[in-house]
């Protein structure tokens, strides 16, 4: 079973964002003009560098004249800067101050757990969050979905690096020396019985494929009948911080499951990464 491949396209803002399909929108009344102008800020966040007005307006799905009016106001308060020579726009100093203030108050694991709870409730599936510890991936929290899945996992469980989707995801993104040291420790008799998942071959080409597709899964699965798909959550330095792993039965992960659940998992992991300050290179 393999996931359908998708051609990488130039990122664009949609009228309904990826996250709108994951979590319900807040229907509390707000200021519409601020929400409209926020499309420009979102477009700047999506961009790989400074942008011309016409390109920025196109990404934000608004007329250039309207975009220019918002940008004038954003320049006045420091949210946006404009290069005097090229005329291109980029986030300003005030935007950086806001980002630093946001990051200083973020508890990544707590924020991710709350997000996973909402996502699990929406999908009706179980989710596991794991971080990297001295001997490999460690479960930081579990959210059980509506369907009961038998898993030998709980908060504090140590996952096999080669024998779980979560472990192979970390192995694909972490420096090889850190992975090799953890593999050595996991092979010790004192730890072997405490680790979830039996070791299996982990070729370098498999790890390269994980990086290329942006998620990891194991076939055949670690637990017969139970599938796991793991997506990376990166921090502001571009390093993998957490693994967000979806757990479901093989029956749920048929072709329809791949088409519906995988994109939502990847979108959720990207959203969490952005909340932790990660700005992916385009």
Automatic annotation (TrEMBL):
PANTHER family the UniProt entry points to: HELIX-TURN-HELIX TRANSCRIPTIONAL REGULATOR, ICLR FAMILY, TRANSCRIPTIONAL REGULATORY PROTEIN
Protein name: IclR family transcriptional regulator
DNA-binding listed as a keyword: yes
Record Pfam families: HTH_IclR, IclR_C
SMART domains: HTH_ICLR
Residues in HTH iclR-type domain copies: 31-93
The IclR-ED domain, residue ranges: 94-278
Keywords: DNA-binding, Transcription, Transcription regulation
SUPFAM superfamilies noted in UniProt: GAF domain-like (SSF55781), Winged helix' DNA-binding domain (SSF46785)
């Amino acid at each position: 079973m393999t996931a359908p491949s998708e051609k990488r396209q130039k990122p664009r803002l949609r009228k309904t964002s990826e996250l709108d399909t994951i979590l319900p929108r807040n229907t509390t009344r707000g200021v519409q003009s601020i929400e409209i102008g926020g499309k420009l800020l979102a477009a700047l966040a999506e961009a790989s560098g400074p942008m011309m007005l016409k390109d920025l307006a196109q990404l934000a799905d608004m007329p250039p004249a309207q975009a220019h009016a918002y940008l004038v106001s954003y320049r006045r308060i420091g949210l946006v800067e404009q290069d005097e020579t090229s005329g291109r726009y980029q986030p300003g100093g005030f935007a950086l101050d806001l980002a630093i203030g946001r990051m200083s108050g973020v508890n990544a694991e707590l924020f991710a757990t709350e997000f996973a709870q909402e996502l699990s409730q929406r999908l009706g599936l179980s989710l596991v969050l794991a971080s990297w510890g001295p001997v490999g991936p460690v479960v930081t929290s579990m959210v059980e979905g509506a369907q009961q899945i038998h898993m030998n996992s709980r908060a504090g469980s140590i996952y096999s690096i080669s024998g779980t989707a979560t472990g192979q995801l970390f192995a694909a993104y972490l420096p090889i020396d850190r992975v090799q040291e953890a593999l050595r420790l996991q092979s010790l008799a004192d730890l072997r019985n405490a680790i979830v998942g039996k070791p299996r071959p982990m070729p370098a080409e498999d790890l390269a494929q994980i990086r290329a597709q942006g998620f990891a899964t194991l076939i055949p699965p670690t637990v017969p009948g139970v599938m796991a798909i793991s997506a990376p959550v990166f921090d502001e330095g571009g390093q993998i911080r957490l693994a967000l792993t979806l757990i479901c039965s093989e029956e749920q992960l048929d072709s329809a499951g791949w088409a519906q659940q995988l994109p939502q998992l990847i979108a959720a992991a990207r959203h969490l990464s952005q909340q932790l300050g990660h700005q992916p290179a385009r």
